[in-house]
């Protein structure tokens, strides 16, 4: 960790008390000048950290921040862990180092300057507020072997979040996680190598933990976070459990395919048994959602029978 980020993390720790802390106190605690304190505060705000500033009282965090305990993370995971205060993209970092990685290696960051979501969307990534996580895996038989993997990852994420006390969550096909019918988390799987032989997959996961009001304005759909929970999950513990459960589930998927996850998927599927509309570009199809098949295609019961639909440009809407 650079001295620059070390200072900022010290400031954040002091501001996490829930009380206002004066600039003089911050300067004294850190052994730096008031001007240096102001410089660090301004920099944190450019990274998306919302800080209340009240003349005569000092500074206070507007939203809770949970930072990774890097030493505990490294000690608790058997694989290699890459941890950054800031990075362009955890997925991008892993994609640029595929020849050096082993199954289960992870990259975690507190801030992404170019976080990515599905369909080229930006994933809003303010410093310390959320979880930005990527895991590496190799499939020797190519993308065909990985068909349906994104649904498996969604099942994993739901199970892990539930183990931390998150209720009222479910999945919108193919892999968006919703809390109280608003998007809580997303999954982006990217590939390098060959589609029909060995390929390397980067499984990216983003979970909203404590979105600031200002950052939320930049999101073009209803969103949720974990800030209303009585006990906010410890982010380090969440990463550790997510990595371990992903390894178990991907290994099960390699042995038994998506069939091993159909019951878990059905239990988490927000649209199962409901009337929905599938949007495919300018076309749409209506029917009753009947879950997914063993390739991960969504099944729709229509007047013509049960049909399977799959593709990156398909969207589901409740009728």
Automatic annotation (TrEMBL):
InterPro entries: aa-tRNA-synth_II/BPL/LPL, ArsR-like_HTH, Bifunct_BirA, Biotin_CoA_COase_ligase, BPL_C, BPL_LPL_catalytic, HTH_11, Transcriptional_repressor_C. GO terms for cellular component: cytoplasm. The keyword Transcription applies. Residues 74-254 form the BPL/LPL catalytic domain. Biotin binds at residues 89-91, 112, 116-118, 183. GO terms for biological process: regulation of DNA-templated transcription. The keyword Protein biosynthesis does not apply. Its EC number is 6.3.4.15. It catalyses: biotin + L-lysyl-[protein] + ATP = N(6)-biotinyl-L-lysyl-[protein] + AMP + diphosphate + H(+). GO terms for molecular function: ATP binding; biotin--[biotin carboxyl-carrier protein] ligase activity; DNA binding. Residues 23-42 bind DNA. Belongs to the biotin--protein ligase family. Acts both as a biotin--[acetyl-CoA-carboxylase] ligase and a biotin-operon repressor. In the presence of ATP, BirA activates biotin to form the BirA-biotinyl-5'-adenylate (BirA-bio-5'-AMP or holoBirA) complex. HoloBirA can either transfer the biotinyl moiety to the biotin carboxyl carrier protein (BCCP) subunit of acetyl-CoA carboxylase, or bind to the biotin operator site and inhibit transcription of the operon. NCBIfam families: birA_ligase, PRK11886.1-2, PRK11886.1-5. This is Bifunctional ligase/repressor BirA. It comes from Shewanella baltica (strain OS155 / ATCC BAA-1091). The lineage of its organism: Bacteria, Pseudomonadati, Pseudomonadota, Gammaproteobacteria, Alteromonadales.
């Amino acid at each position: 960790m650079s001295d620059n980020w070390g200072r900022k993390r010290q400031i954040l720790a002091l501001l996490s008390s829930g009380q206002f802390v004066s600039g003089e106190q911050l300067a004294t605690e850190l052994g730096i000048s008031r001007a240096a304190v102001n410089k660090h505060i301004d920099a944190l705000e450019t990274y998306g950290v919302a800080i209340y500033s009240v003349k005569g009282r000092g500074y206070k965090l507007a939203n809770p921040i949970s930072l990774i305990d890097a030493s505990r993370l490294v000690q608790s995971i058997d694989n290699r862990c890459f941890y950054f205060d800031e990075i362009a993209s955890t997925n991008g970092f892993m994609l640029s180092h595929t020849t050096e990685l082993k199954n289960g290696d992870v990259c975690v960051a507190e801030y992404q300057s170019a976080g990515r979501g599905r369909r080229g969307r930006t994933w809003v990534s303010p410093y310390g507020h959320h979880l930005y996580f990527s895991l590496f895996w190799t499939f020797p038989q190519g993308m065909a072997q990985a068909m349906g993997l994104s649904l498996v990852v969604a099942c994993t994420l739901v199970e892990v979040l539930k183990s931390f006390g998150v209720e009222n969550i479910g999945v919108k096909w193919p892999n968006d996680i919703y809390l109280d019918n608003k998007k809580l988390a997303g999954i982006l799987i990217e590939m390098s190598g060959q589609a029909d032989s060995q390929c390397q997959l980067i499984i990216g996961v983003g979970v909203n933990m404590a979105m600031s009001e200002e950052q939320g304005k930049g999101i073009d759909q209803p969103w949720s976070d974990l800030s209303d929970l009585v006990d906010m999950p410890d982010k380090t513990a969440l990463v550790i459990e997510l990595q371990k459960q992903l390894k178990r589930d991907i290994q099960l998927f390699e042995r038994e395919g998506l069939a091993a996850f159909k019951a878990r998927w059905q239990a988490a599927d927000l649209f199962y048994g409901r009337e929905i509309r599938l949007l495919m570009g300018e076309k749409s199809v209506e029917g009753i959602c009947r879950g997914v098949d063993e390739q991960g295609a969504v099944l729709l019961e229509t007047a013509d029978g049960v049909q399977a639909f799959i593709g990156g440009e398909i969207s589901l809407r409740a009728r």
